[in-house]
Amino acid sequence: MRIAIVGAGGVGGYFGARLAAAGHEVTFVARGRHLEAVRRSGLLVRSPLGDVRTSPGSVVESVADVDGADLVVVAVKLWDTEDVARQLGASKLAGTPVLSLQNGVQKDTVLARRLPAESLLGGACFISAFIEEPGVVRHNGTLQRMVFGARHPSQEPVARQFLQACTEAGIDAEISEDVDRVIWEKYVFLVGHSAATTAVRRPIGVVRSHERTRALLRDVMAETVAVARASGVALAEDFAERQLAFCDTLPADMTSSMHNDLEHGHRLELPWLSGGVAGLADELGVPAPRNRTVADILSPYVDGAPAGA
């Protein structure tokens, strides 16, 4: 396949490098020092599943520089979604099938403002990975999973083709017939994991082993489930408890990308995570005090480390 990966960070970098190593034609869209390092030496992924390095030059600076693709994978931070949608809509890739692996439940709504709705597949990924230094992505643990699916019959061939590509690349992937439910299921976990690890400033092992922080994790997820159900998404009432049990299976040192961003003084996706839950809860008349408190506590760091910090 010809695959354009918009965003070569932890998610896009990891999955893109695996697909490239399997022989697929992958073009990354990156910027800054990361772009220059990948252009010079290729992208190195360090992983417990085996390291892999892409060939130099497999990266461009802009969506407009991508000649063409069978599939566009969007893996940028959420605040860049509108800009990426605008670039895609004005490029040779307009109308190409698009799969967003971004966090949150509002990503495809933003993309659909600029792109044909019939071009947007649904998808979610499950992985802990981040840029360790320019040109290097670090994969934590062995979890590296994608779930995606067609929202329109015309998308089914490319979904099946991408599943085959992922299988060849050793990526744990599957097609879902109810991908929007999967996106919300991930959102429940993501909001809880990111809120708790970032607010406590420790990995999941610390969070889950202390009674009060474990309760915080559970309550944040339970509020997100309540918002999902109020939105018409058929999540079970005990889904938060099930996700808490899943958190007990994670490596103790696993943390969230938002916690990693906080530690490095980077911008946070908070407005789309706990902040997003609080906003949706207000619209739906559902209480979400735990998510609101997390959003309030972390609000000084949303745009990066505050002055004087």
Question: Main attributes?
Answer:
309 residues, alpha/beta, ten-stranded mixed beta sheet
Description of the molecule:
With 309 residues, the protein is an alpha/beta fold. The chain contains twelve helices and ten strands. Strands 1, 2, 3, 4, 5, 6, 7, 8, 9 and 10 form a ten-stranded mixed β-sheet that branches. Strand 7 (98-100), helix 4 (107-111) and strand 8 (120-133) form a beta-alpha-beta unit. The termini are far apart. 48% of the residues are buried. The model has no long low-confidence stretch (mean pLDDT 95).
| Strand and helix order | EHEHEEEEHEHEEHEHHHHHHH
What structural category characterises the helix and strand content? Answer: alpha/beta
Q: Spans with pLDDT under 50 lasting ≥5 residues?
A: none
Mean pLDDT: 95
Strand content: 15-25%
**Structure annotation, total helices:** 12
* Largest sheet features: 10 strands, mixed
Principal-axes geometry comes out as globular
How many strands? Answer: 10
Question: Percentage of helical residues?
Answer: 40-55%
End-to-end C-alpha gap: 46 Å
Rg over CA atoms, rounded to whole Å, is: 19 Å
| Oligomer type | single chain
Q: Quick gist of this model?
A:
The protein has 309 residues and is α/β, with parallel strands linked by helices. The chain has twelve helices and ten strands.
What does the secondary structure layout of this molecule look like, with pairings?
Blueprint: E1 2-6, H1 10-21, E2 25-29, H2 32-41, E3 44-46, E4 52-53, E5 59-60, E6 71-74, H3 81-89, E7 98-100, H4 107-111, E8 120-133, E9 136-149, H5 156-168, E10 172-175, H6 179-200, H7 204-209, H8 211-230, H9 239-247, H10 257-263, H11 274-284, H12 289-298
Parallel strand pairs: 1-2, 1-6, 2-5, 3-9, 6-7, 7-8, 9-10
Antiparallel strand pairs: 3-4, 8-9
